[in-house]
């Protein structure tokens, strides 16, 4: 007899490149406005902000070549991002030790219902309605850090129907991966299975059904997604 009063949901997991094993996802943390040019295009001064984070749901991460245009929105935007997956965690992690907690990396999209996010901002409400909807984070299989090294530099690019829209470098991140891990661990107890989306370069924009989005990050598999 089951100990549960209802059937428990299947855990969210991600494939790992080169193996048939899966990475279990615990939480998804997302940093906001982590590239200076993107902060400016969103109307903010990057020199005056401490890092801030919001969350997506673990099952928002999906390995799929399709992104269903979500309900209740007429202005959905793409945001290309580097994803960082943790193999361990803790509290008050030192910057010098942070990369020891990284399992691997992936290319991802933080799809955003920008109109709903805009309303939430104006009313001082949380962003989840604009950020944490179903299938809002397409992602590639993870690449273990041992296979690709730390991701502190290298190109990050997004094309929409073959046209370059975002073209940056990971070294443009205001808060680097070790700093993000350290800062988060001051406020949350990080743990194995946590994923961090590390922000997006300038050039975000709207999508339409039929669009093909392609994300490339140096030394990682590319992500290709069709909006349906």
Automatic annotation (TrEMBL):
Listed GO MF terms: acetylpyruvate hydrolase activity; metal ion binding
Coiled-coil residue spans: none
In terms of Pfam families, this protein maps to: FAA_hydrolase
Query: InterPro entries given for it?
Result: Fumarylacetoacetase-like_C (IPR011234), Fumarylacetoacetase_C_sf (IPR036663)
Name all Fumarylacetoacetase-like C-terminal domain ranges: 28-227
Q: What keywords were assigned to this record?
A: Hydrolase, Metal-binding, Pyruvate
| Signal peptide stretch | none
Q: Out of the domains of life, which is the source?
A: Bacteria
Asked if the Swiss-Prot or TrEMBL record annotates the protein with the keyword Hydrolase, the reply is yes
Does Chaperone show up as a keyword for this record?
no
The protein depicted here goes by the name Fumarylpyruvate hydrolase
Please report the organism this UniProt entry assigns to the protein: Roseibium marinum
